[in-house]
Amino acid sequence: MSAPGANLKINADRLWDSLMEMAKIGPGVAGGNNRQTVTDEDAEGRALFQKWCEDAGMTMGVDTMGTMFMRREGTDPDALPVYVGSHLDTQPTGGKYDGVLGVLGGLEIIRTMNDLGIKTKHPIVVTNWTNEEGTRFAPAMLASGVFAGMHTQDWAYAKTDAEGKTFGDELARIGWKGDEEVGARKMHAFFELHIEQGPILEAEGVDIGVVTHGQGLSWTQITVTGKDAHTGSTPMPMRKNAGLCMARILDLVDEIAWSHAPHAVGAAGHIDVYPNSRNVIPGKVVFTVDFRSPDLAVIEDMEAKLRDGAEQIADTMGMEIAFEKVGGFDPVEFDEGCVRAVRNAAERLGLSHMDIISGAGHDACWINRVAPTAMVMCPCVDGLSHNEAEEITKEWAEAGANVLMHAVIETAEIV
Ligand code: HGY
Ligand code: MN
Ligand code: MN
Fold this sequence. Notes:
Elements: H1 12-23, H2 40-55, E1 59-62, E2 68-72, E3 82-86, H3 100-116, E4 124-128, H4 142-147, H5 153-157, H6 167-173, E5 189-195, H7 200-204, E6 208-214, E7 216-225, E8 229-230, H8 242-258, E9 265-274, E10 280-281, E11 284-293, H9 296-316, E12 320-329, E13 332-333, H10 336-348, E14 353-358, H11 363-367, E15 373-378, H12 394-412
Parallel strand pairs: 3-4, 3-5, 5-15, 6-14
Antiparallel strand pairs: 1-2, 2-4, 6-13, 6-15, 7-11, 7-12, 8-10, 9-11
Helix pairs in contact: 1-3, 1-12, 3-12, 8-9, 10-12
The structure holds (2S)-amino(hydroxy)ethanoic acid and manganese (II) ion (2 copies).
């Protein structure tokens, strides 16, 4: 398999302009994005991506989970395609690059190949996976999870948002419920470019993360039930304060994560307090504990310690407590051959690189179960992500997209 020459480079200005253009859709309130899954803003971003891809000569397929597959033909139409992509949906207070860099980086590869008249044996398919973030509809990586056979489509369609709307209805409403069977597509390989969303690459002064593994994730939704009561006239001994119970459990979450330092992490990002009135003691709280570790045994230990400890706290305080596992996946080891293609690409391009474990979850973590998969990471400023201030440099985007292109073209076999 011939490797592309080191002089093969993407058009960094065009990639950057596309990132900035996409960022105008679903703007946040502080310079980032709020383009949540299967909203009208998501539909607008999809339409723009579709137009750009069709302008680049690609043909579109959409599956019944709304995932977009934009195909550039290879010289052998029967060869399994090389897939490359990520997600266009964002957090409610998301950045401009999380997911989007991987989708538009894939498009830039095609645009560059068109410019240079490059052909490959295998077709190349640029992919936008629906609902990677899992914020509006849990869990994260919903569509890639259905594609990999981890969830049924009916289960996914029935997931509801805070307003009680279902994912299936909202996907249909925005007009992006496709007709392809989810998971029917077979892949030669899948590559995903993503910002690191952590501080390591920038701190090490390294341009490229060669992602060998992804840490595992566990989401446990906890419901604590106490009793609504007046915050003024209810004597302290009579209170059943669900909010206080949650606070003590969150302190326990922090303690459990620290007990597995330095790699384990834990927090709750989703917290609903009821009735959430200034002068009512909260009678109910619903919150989701997010534990992560590269080691499955550590995740399982943290889950067990959480249940035991939280039950004890609730019993001591006379509260009811319920647990529901609402998301999770085991730690991931990416495909050696694909990882090598990424590492060779970085070397060929003379870019500084290091092996890294992904702290965040990605569609690649599920697709790795059904196809040889690897990821390329670029640094982000202060390691900040899932924050509207998320920032990268054009040079980092360029380096990441060049490595992605070399790995993809080498795997797709340039002819
Ligand atoms: O939760 C995650 O790690 C990803 O950003 N959805
Ligand atoms: Mn992402
Ligand atoms: Mn994200």
